[in-house]
Amino acid sequence: MDSPFDTFTALLDPPVHVVTAADGAELGGCLVGFAGQCSIDPPRFVVWISKANHTFGVASRSDTLAVHLIPQNRPELAELFGGRSGDSVDKFAGVAWTVGPSGVPLLTDAEACFVGRVIDRADWGDHVGFLLEPVGGRTPRTGTAAPDTSLTLHDVTDIKPGHPA
């Protein structure tokens, strides 16, 4: 039987994001389900990356991360960045991307993205939170994206994580 907390979180359907990083020698990118704006003034956003994820190591050595919204019509991006491990696959070989600030990869086919400077990290369990100060980004190509145009947690529940358990 599910706990009240499990039942509560099952009702949530937040957007998922692909977070990318570069440390000067290596690129990383992963699908994250734990992320959100955490301050208005000053603007701040936090992304939580699993310690088991290859991207965690790259992000830990990076001063800048990019956070991407994935459009509904590009589920293969979620599958690539969530279902494959950077330990064994070059995730960036088969996707279009450009180089952003500090070398961070910016996915061309993302609905929108922003780049954030890492200003703090918080280790609170099996994920580490990266607190970001926005420094740039790209808005949706078609103006303002409707809330239902991006992939959500319920859209990706069938993706088996690519990182080791």
Automatic annotation (TrEMBL):
Keyword terms: Oxidoreductase
Gene3D superfamilies with a match to the protein in the record: Electron Transport, Fmn-binding Protein, Chain A
Cross-referenced Pfam families: Flavin_Reduct
MF (Gene Ontology): FMN binding; riboflavin reductase (NADPH) activity
Stretches assigned to the Flavin reductase like domain: 9-160
SMART domains named among the record's database cross-references: Flavin_Reduct
Domain of life, per lineage: Bacteria
InterPro entries (alphabetical): Flavin_Rdtase-like_dom (IPR002563), NADH-dep_flavin_reductase (IPR050268), Split_barrel_FMN-bd (IPR012349)
UniProt name for this protein: Oxidoreductase
Organism: Kitasatospora indigofera
